[in-house]
Amino acid sequence: LRQRALSELATREGKEALNEWRVQFLGKKGELTAILRGMGQLSPEERPVIGQFVNEVRSQLEEAFAEKENLVKKEERERKLREQAVDVTLPGRKLPFGHEHPLMRTIREMEDIFIGLGFEIAEGPVVELDYYNFEALNLPKNHPARDMQDTFYVTDEILLRTHTSPVQVRTMEKKKGDVPLRIVCPGRVFRRDDDDATHSHEFTQLEGLVVDRNIRMSDLKGILLAFAKQMFGQDREIRLRPSYFPFTEPSAEVDLSCGSCGGSGCRVCKHTGWIEILGAGMVHPRVLEMAGYDPEIYRGFAFGMGIERIAMMKYGVDDIRQFYVNDVRFIHQFKTWS
Ligand code: PHE
To answer: Is the distance from the beta carbon of residue 279 to the nearest atom of ligand 1 less than 6 Å?
Structure first.
């Protein structure tokens, strides 16, 4: 029995088979117990001898069983570990990740350039007083130039700002005659326009203002040229054309040389070699005075440009409405990572 039990134990694999073996040899109805039960038929002399022998066999079998059980458990554990193993070299799952809107990206790029040129960022309200949007900019009521910017009025005195120029006045008032003053202000503006590929009733401007002693038109040109080259490339040039704004004198419209045609003419610049990008000029003495700066001592220059227009030129966007409809097929082209 011992031989048979031990050799059979060696062939058993797995928990189930092991348990069956225990029932068969060591269980209450097992073979060893059956032998012990049969002891009654033995003579009193034989009983202790056989009994001791049977107990020896039992403890041998139990020992062998415990050993085998340990082995099986260990194998089981190792198998589980193998099955559940994590491959740490597998690439991770990609998370959907947001990124800057092309308009915000353009604003940030423009701000970065002007910060590098010593400017600070300023802000002002979108819902503005008629006073700041027009009057303090030398556009009194009934001034014909008010028609240049068809206005959304909230009340007689309150409107949606038609340009970021009111921030010029608000910043000068805050600075209380302090110089130097160098700010740029990005922000939303509104005009009663019919929307099409190049017009939107709501768009974004970047305003610039510098006030100090001895500011000259050449400072304006130098700053704008530096901006144009950093924004569009070192090969670009700018050109100033005389113009009119009630809040600057003299005033200019500024063109950027067309990069894509190299001066020989193309659709972007309509074969002129130049594209208009902004309005600018020397701050009108009356505007300085109304905002608390003595025009006999201080002078300034200001400029304002449409940010969508800059973004369209820089990134080759042909419809301004693309910036507002939030079509991800458009927006995701401005990912700067992959
Ligand atoms: N505010 C003007 C516009 O919206 C642009 C401008 C700004 C012109 C500052 C001159 C100086 O068209």
So the answer is: yes
Q: How far is the CA of 202 from the centre of ligand 1 (A)?
A: 16
188 touches 202 (CB < 8 A)? yes
Mutate which of 199, 245, 247 for ligand 1? The one with the most ligand atoms within 8 Å of its CB, which is 245
**β-pairing, 181-190 with 120-121?**
parallel
* Full DSSP string of 109-126: HHHHHHHHTT-EE----S
Instruction: Could you list the beta-strand ranges (E) of 166-273.
Output: 181-190, 202-212, 238-245, 248-257
What residue spans of 38-159 are helical by DSSP H?
46-83, 102-116, 130-133
Kindly report the pTM of this predicted structure: 0.74
Tell me the H-state helices in 147-242.
166-175, 217-232
Under 8 Å between Cβ of 128 and 139 = no
Report the complex ipTM.
0.98
Match 């030129």 to its residue by tokens. 313
55-65 as b/e: b if 16+ CB within 10 A: eebbeebeebb
For 181-220, write each residue's pLDDT tens digit.
999 999 999 999 899 999 999 999 999 999 999 999 999 9
Q: How far is the CA of 318 from the centre of ligand 1 (A)?
A: 23
Distance CA 249, CA 129 (A): 24
Angle between helices 46-83 and 14-25 (to 10 degrees): 170
249 is in an annotated binding site: yes
